[in-house]
Design a protein that fits this description.
single chain; alpha+beta; eight-stranded mixed β-sheet; globular
Length: 491
């Protein structure tokens, strides 16, 4: 029986646009996606050192009424039914009915930043197992993943040529070219990363059983990408690593440049947006163009603004990997800016939206989202979905002058452990979460809220479910490993 290297990974790119990606050995001549008895030919969208990556597309119309339908599918390679790395040969996903409210799952930080954390974690994939159990009882319509779908930080110790590069002085690092020995090693590293990290039984089943959308963050490349000094970011070695990580992200997480939801298929960024069952899904690419001076390029901003102008009805879910509403690091950042240790703190300080160099862009984003919220019906929700910080929380941006709100939900991480008690005490000591005002009249108030049945910050691994209740509130539930059962209704 033919075996898939990666996948299948199910995707969604529009109201009826379902997709799948997977990889197989290079000798495969033809691949097919058999969906609900209908066979669709797949196309090649990329390759790795040991595989070819395929993409399938299928339009599926929602059934009328309030009942959805389950659809089974298989992958065929050269006419033979293929199995995944866990031996499955058939998968099922759920398409909600036209009169049915969709349910969403959101997660981020799907991995470990170092092996020590992995060894200390009793059941690394417990929350994926929980999601699988929940999905079996009441299927999710869409899985939103907000960054760090895998952790590539081990690249510096796993790639022999990079181990040698690490020992060089800074000038020699900047001068070194990614040579014919280094490049294949980096390519094989990312190939192995996807093939090994995405084959965990519960996780791989969910990626094959719930249509997903994904936006990357730094660990999909390596820790702190985009928040290093320009000379490092622009160096030949850094750029080759980035371009390789980008290739794999595009193939497996974006599902190629054929992705129908991309705001600009020719741009350097991967921002995307589409409408689904009364919701507008919008993902911001805060990594592809990030530097110490910017988060998003003018090109992405123009595409984002043009897209928001078309969003005139429905709820809006915005994926921003790094939280827009979170504790303020600016005072600590200002202290370290004057010390020789600034570069060692890039991931902790320079990555945040409230870093001094990104505050203007943050304000611009907030004003645009508030403006868009005002042009839609007041009862329609705007929610930013974020991760990155390894805790859960909820915040709100309240524009009192226009009587509109933008909420932010943080869910992190689904696999990565939360900060230890000592680490968290250090974070709280170095930061604050005082109420913030964005304008001179103090009409725009930004604050961190407290979920029901929980502390203000959820210091336990978690993922989030979102479902519109009969009370017209969007209910946020943190499925957490902790003792609490955090929940918050967004009005």
């Amino acid at each position: 029986m033919a075996t898939l290297k990666v996948g299948p990974v199910l995707g969604l790119e529009g109201e009826t646009a379902y997709t799948v990606v997977f990889s197989a050995t290079p000798d495969v001549q033809a691949a097919e996606w058999v969906v609900g008895g209908t066979t669709r030919p797949c196309m090649i969208v990329g390759s790795t050192p040991g595989s070819t990556v395929w993409r399938g597309e299928h339009k599926i119309t929602a059934p009328a009424g309030e009942s959805g339908k389950e659809i089974s599918y298989q992958i065929k390679l050269d006419g033979t039914v293929a199995s995944c790395g866990n031996g499955r040969t058939q998968w099922t996903f759920y398409v909600p009915g036209k009169g049915e409210q969709p349910t969403f799952a959101y997660g981020s930080c799907n991995g470990f930043s170092d092996l020590a954390l992995m060894h200390k974690t009793e059941n690394p994939y417990r929350l994926w197992q929980k999601m699988a159990a929940d999905h079996a009882k009441a299927p999710f319509s869409l899985l939103l993943m907000g960054g760090d779908q895998l952790y590539a930080d081990s690249i510096w110790t796993s790639v022999p040529e990079l181990q040698d590069w690490n020992t060089l002085c800074q000038d020699d690092k900047l001068a070194r070219v990614a040579n014919i020995k280094m490049c294949p090693q980096i390519d094989k590293f990312y190939e192995k990363l996807y093939q090994t990290r995405w084959t965990e039984p519960a996780m791989s089943k969910m990626l094959a059983s719930i249509p997903s959308v994904m936006m990357w963050d730094d660990h999909d490349i390596f820790d702190g990408w985009g928040s290093f000094p320009d000379e490092l970011l622009e160096s030949d070695v850094f750029q080759y690593i980035f371009q390789t990580a980008k290739k794999y992200f595009e193939m497996f997480q974006i599902r190629s440049r054929f992705n129908a939801s991309l705001l600009d298929k020719t741009a350097d960024h991967y921002a995307f947006g589409f409408h689904f069952r009364g919701y507008n899904i919008l993902a911001l690419d805060n990594r592809a163009e990030r530097t110490l001076q910017q988060v998003m390029s003018d090109s992405q901003w123009n595409a984002l603004i043009a897209h928001l102008d078309t969003v005139t009805k429905g709820h809006l879910l915005v994926l921003s990997a790094v939280p827009v509403v979170y504790r303020d690091f600016s005072f600590t950042e200002s202290l370290f800016d004057a010390t020789p240790w600034e570069e060692e703190l890039t991931d902790d300080l320079k990555d945040h939206w409230r870093s001094k160099n990104h505050q203007g862009e943050r304000a611009r984003l907030i004003h645009r989202l508030l403006q868009n919220a005002a042009q839609r019906k007041l009862e329609e929700k705007t929610v930013i979905l974020s991760g990155d910080v390894h805790i859960g929380c909820i915040g709100v941006i309240h524009d009192q002058a226009r009587s509109v709100k933008v909420h932010q939900v943080v869910s992190s991480g689904i696999v990565h452990p939360s900060p230890s008690r000592l680490q968290w005490l250090g974070i709280m000591a170095a930061t604050n979460d005082r109420t913030e005002y964005l304008d001179e009249a103090q009409d725009i108030r930004i604050s961190v809220l407290t979920p029901f049945a929980s502390d203000q910050y959820i210091r336990a691994r978690n993922f989030v479910t979102l479902e519109l209740g009969t009370d017209d509130k969007l209910w946020i539930n943190w499925e957490s490993e902790g003792k609490d059962t955090p929940v918050y209704p967004i009005e």
